[in-house]
Recover the amino acids of this structure.
């Protein structure tokens, strides 16, 4: 299978490690958690602004 199997695995994977360092996975998970926290803050802030602006008629 060789290179064709590698290409198929890269196409099917959500992420692919390009090196031998598994600490990159831990960093990626931490980065994803921070990103989701910021998304939550942005949603909360935008809903708050909409609520304030819609009640200030």
């Amino acid at each position: 299978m060789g290179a064709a199997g590698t290409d198929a695995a890269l196409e099917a994977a959500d992420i692919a490690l390009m090196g031998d360092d598994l600490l990159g996975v831990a960093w990626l998970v931490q980065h994803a958690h921070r990103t989701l926290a910021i998304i939550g803050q942005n949603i909360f802030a935008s809903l708050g602004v909409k609520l304030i602006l819609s009640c200030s008629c």
